[in-house]
């Protein structure tokens, strides 16, 4: 399970982050990601470690936000 890769949308669903926020974290190197062709894949364990650190942070901007469902 340590080498499981997620799509950007799967990572967003798991964390409640917006997909663009996931891409931004990957570009900044805060989570491990790879390009497979044109698709960005996020390493699940890296994402979960980042999320745990964000939730334990005292900075209120670092945790996931509740997204409003469109429609």
In short:
This protein is an alpha+beta fold. 42% of the residues lie in helices and 17% in strands.
Secondary structure elements and pairings:
Blueprint: E1 5-7, H1 8-15, H2 19-27, E2 33-36, E3 39-43, H3 44-56
Antiparallel strand pairs: 1-3, 2-3
Keyword list:
71 residues; alpha+beta; 3-stranded antiparallel sheet; 42% helix; globular
Structural class: alpha+beta
Strand content: 15-25%
Number of domains: 1
- Give me the strand/helix succession: EHHEEH
User: For the report, how would you describe the main beta sheet?
Assistant: 3 strands, antiparallel
The count of strands amounts to: 3
Gross geometry: globular
**How do the strands line up in the largest sheet?**
1-3-2
- Given as residue ranges, the uncertain stretches (5+ residues, pLDDT < 50) are none
Helix % is 40-55%
Structure description:
The protein is of the alpha+beta class and 71 residues long. It has one domain. The protein is built from 3 helices and 3 strands; from the N terminus they run E-H-H-E-E-H. It has a 3-stranded antiparallel sheet with strand order 1-3-2. Helix 1 packs across helix 2. The protein starts with a strand and ends in a 15-residue tail after the last helix.
């Amino acid at each position: 399970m340590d080498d499981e890769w997620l799509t950007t949308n799967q990572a967003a669903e798991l964390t409640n982050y917006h997909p663009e926020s996931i891409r931004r974290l990957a570009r900044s190197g805060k989570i491990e990601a790879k390009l497979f062709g044109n698709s960005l894949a996020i390493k699940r364990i890296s994402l979960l470690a980042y999320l745990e650190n964000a939730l334990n942070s005292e900075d209120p901007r670092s945790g996931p936000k509740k997204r409003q469902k469109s429609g």
